[in-house]
Every structure is written in structure tokens, then in C-alpha cells.
Amino acid sequence: MKFSHLGLIALSALLLVPASGALPARAAVTELTNVSYDPTRELYDQYNKAFVQYYKKKTGQDITVVQSHGGSSKQARAVIEGNEADVVTLALASDITAIEHAGLIKAGWQKTFPNNSSPYTSTIVFLVRKGNPKGLKDWGDLAKPGIGVITPNPKTSGGARWNYLAAWAWADKQYNKDEKAVLDYISKLFGNVLVLDTGARGSTNTFVKNGQGDVLLAWENEAYLAIAERPGEFEIVTPPLSILAEPPVAIVDGVADKRGSRALATEYLNYLYSDEGQRIAGKNFYRPSNPKIAEEFSKIFDLKVKLITIDDPLFGGWDKTQKAHFEDRGIFDKIYTKK
Amino acid sequence: MASASKRIIPGFGLSFGLTLAYLGLIVIIPMSFIAIKSSGLGWSAFWDTVLDPRILAGYRVSFSSALIAALINSVFGLILAWALTRYRFPGRRVIDALIELPFALPTAVAGIALTSLYSDKGWIGKELAVFGLKVAYTELGIIVALTFITIPFVVRSVQPVLEQLDGVYEEAGRILGASPGRIFLRIIFPEITPALLTGFGLAFARALGEYGSVIFIAGNMPFKTEIAPLLIMSKLEQFNYAEATAVALVMLVASFIIMFAINCIQARAAAFVKE
Questions:
Q1: pTM for this entry
Q2: What is the ipTM of this complex?
Q3: How far is A301 from chain B, CA to nearest CA, in Å?
Q4: Where are the beta strands (DSSP E) in A112-247?
Q5: In this predicted model, what pLDDT tens digit does every residue of A262-311 receive, in sequence order?
Q6: Which candidate in B220, B235, B241 is best for mutational testing of the A interface (most A CBs within 10 A)?
Q7: Do A98 and B21 touch (CB under 8 A)?
Q8: CATH topology (fold) of A121-245+302-335
Q9: Of A73, A198, A326, which is closest to B215 when you measure between CB atoms?
């Protein structure tokens, strides 16, 4: 009796040993997987079509691009846990750095492509209701009593970290680096937040469809999409000072080398910097990194806005900012320690 | 072991072995993985994590709203099951089929739909706002979502028992002059109590872990409407696996204790019925 127990347990344990084996050899790579974040859906939809055509013309080869979207950090985690992405195009450098720490991307990836490996940029703007009834013009207005602010939670949404940092950058200037005054402002601002959604699309939904709040802190491209979807209901207010959001791209070395897709992946990301790639970004309300192409879209983008970067001495890069502001028990958590 | 080798029904070794293997593969190994991951934290860091005031607030929101939702469904699920088994009316089959719908719907869709209905600009929320009642973006909203998600459990647990209830005892009670209320309390209710407890337990457990629908309707404000599964997710977003699993481990242990207690009560109730 006892023997048959053990036998079965041993047998089931055997079944658990993962089937390990050599990977089958692959022919010329014709498929490329791009793991991206949520608001680039429309952008890569168009870009992939353009790239497939371009590649066919150049090499005569038909390829397909497999596209995946989701929250930026979630997507990074999926890649770390084995989702075979040849390239990642995410919202934050820190998400790609997390993949680097997992050993899948080589250090120094941010120097591989021009402009910190960010083919397009964006910034944080205010989406307000038609006619701007509360007269919101600048960051200071958002902390006034009685204003309802909608933003995703910086802890769960990569995009929302830019919202928080843009507000911080403004306050730092406004209060001459007086950290106590800056914290006070940020606390008041987040005290005005009515709903902390987990992601950018959730917040847009809360503000646009469910009619909550007076202002949505949004990426410029998300704000334009909302306006395109419901014309005549909203306005965009670009504050005089905001932050330069640089969503970076990278080749996942671990995957590309294994699949032999490095050449194709490099071509794919390089083409984002071509005139056509830049124009597709602009049409989807991302600011082209090429200043000449950006100028073509000067009617859409307020190119005069002063933009602070994450590498500004105020922040000192993502690693430092992430630790100081967003990690558990960091500055952002302090806002919410006591209700 | 001596008693085990003398069992009258053959096949205990085989079925017990299979039970262990199956449970091990599907439940125990993934669960122990959680314990192992969180053990990377060390003792004091573990307690610092799970006793953080914000995490404690998250547990409170999660457990209290799951409990209330399961209680609501115990009452109304029983009434639903009663109506569906005891009465014949047009559209009964349609209603019967509707019960399972919350299971089929992706929870995120349910959350978004409920939020747009119950926000103060939505169809239902607008009417409730007149009375100063705010549903979406409050704990009430969380309870609404959880009640929606877990409605099938109680109905489907109680329904078969009600269907198979032998009418002779009720008839005997009636002949002996018992009032309808007394018949329900003394004859019917004890019969369905084990099933009702099962349904309650299932609904409670499911509600406790629900994430997809709640995050849309909750508002997710720290200390007020932030559920524990969201806190786990937000730790995962920061690639902080150890703390995330620590919070999850506490939830698991707490729910296991609760489920175990419900199972014990249920076994007693079932034994009572057999007598």
C-alpha cells in the first residue's frame, strides 16, 4: 500500500521535470515580435504596415510583425519571464533597464540608437472640458481647492510617473528648490486626485466616458486621441513647463541572438528614425525626434513649451528617480502615509 | 498503517496518490512557490511589509467588501434559487441561463460596464446621486462589482439541493399544523444550510481575489478603496517579487483559515442533516 503511494508520487515528480532540449534550427527569420505598451497601438499598426512594405522593396522578402501591447512594466515582466520579443518599445527606460538586469539586454543599450534610443518623444499636457471652465493654465492651478484631478497611479503606471515628475519639475522652479514647499504642493495636487486608475487608458476612460474630474493629466498623444474620438468636448492645455517623455526602444539581445533576428530587428528600429517613420509618429501625435519633421507638425504641437528631461540634475536619471520617488516607502508613498 | 491495509473498498492507494499528485501539481507547488519567494525577504522585512498601515488598510477593504458581497449573495442567491426551483413562470429558463453570465464575461469588461452605469454621470448612478449616494469610486462600488462577479456560486450550490428536497417532510409539517415560516426554518433551512455555506465560502474566496473588475470601479485611493490584490500588483510593477508574494502569502493563509473554518461548520451542518 505504502509502496504504491510512493510510486505514484515519484511518477508525478518525474512528470514535473521540464522537457529540456535543443532548439530546432531556424531558417531565415521572417517574423519579428515587438512588445510595446498601451498607447502605441495605433502608431505601430501604421508603422508595421509601412515597414513591411519598405522591407519587401529593399530585400524582396515578406515578413510579418507580431505586435503586443499592455502596461509598460507588465510587458517588461512578460519579456523577463520568457515572452520572446525581438524588440521592445516601452514607455520608460527603467522598464528596459529591468530587462537588462535580467540579463536579456546588454548594458549601454540606450546609446545604440540616436536620441537616447527614443525615436519619438511626448510630453504631459492637461486635458480639460470644453471652454476650460475652471481656467486651468499651469501646474499651480491644479492644486487649488475644489479642482478634481484624474491621473493614473505612478506606482502602477509608467506613464503616470511622467505626470508626477512634470509637476515636481514645475514646483521645483516655482519654489526655488525649497523641498518642503515642493512636497506641500505635490501633496495638495494628489489630494485633489479623485480616482487613481492603474493605467493611462483607465484614467482616460474615467475622465472622458465617466465624466469624473476637471482635468486629466495625460500624455500629449493620449490627449489628442481623446479629442479625435470625441470632437468638441475637450480642450488641450499645454502648460509653459513640462517634462520630456522619452519612450525608448531596444533590441532584446538574448532573444535576437538566439533567433538570429538581429539584422531584421536593427533595421526595424532604425526605420523608426527615417522620414517616413518620423511622419507616422507625428501623425499619431508623438513628437518626432527629428527637428525638421517635428517642424512639419508645429500646428499640432506647441514646440515652444519648455521641457525638462529626466537626466536634468533635478532628477539625475531614471535609476535615481525611481529609487527616490517611486519605490515603496519613497517620496510618493509619503504623500499617502496618513490620510 | 495497519488500518489502511484493511480497508474494505479497494483502490485507496491509487486514488489517494492521484489526489496528492493532482493537487500537488495544480495547487500545492504553485502555492509553496509563493512561500519560497517571500522567504527571500527575511523575517523582519516580511513583517514590516505585511504590517505596513497601507497594506493593512488594503486587507481591511478586501476582506470586508468580500464578506459583505458574499452575505448579500447568500440572501439573494437563496431567494433566486428558491424562485427558480419552486415556481414555474414564463422566462424561467432564460433567467436560469442568465445566472452564469457573470462567469462568462471578462472581469475587466464587467468592471468598465458597472463603472459607467454607477458613476454619478451613469444611468443608475445619476438616480442614486439624487439621494446623495455615491457608488462608483467608493467601497460601495467594490461591493457592487464583487456581488456581480460572485452571484452564480450561491445559486448554483443551493439549487440542486432545493430541487431534490423531498416534499413529504414539508407535507408532514403542514399536516401537523406548522406555519410556513416554521416549516422553512425547521425543515427546509437545515437541509440547505451545508449547500448555502459552500456557496458562501466559494463566493467569499472568489471575491477576495478579484482584481480585474474592481480596479475600474474602486477609484483605488490609498487607505480608502485600495484592495489588497492591487497592492500586490503595484509591488509587482516595481519588480518587487518578494514583497508582493509576502502580501499574497498573508492573504492566502487568512483565506485558508476562513475556508477551513467554513468547511468544518459545513461538515457539522451536514452531519446534523443526516441525523
A1: 0.80
A2: 0.76
A3: 31
A4: 120-129, 149-152, 193-197, 215-219, 234-237, 241-245
A5: 999 999 999 999 999 999 999 999 999 999 999 999 988 988 899 999 98
A6: B220
A7: no
A8: D-Maltodextrin-Binding Protein; domain 2 (3.40.190)
A9: A198
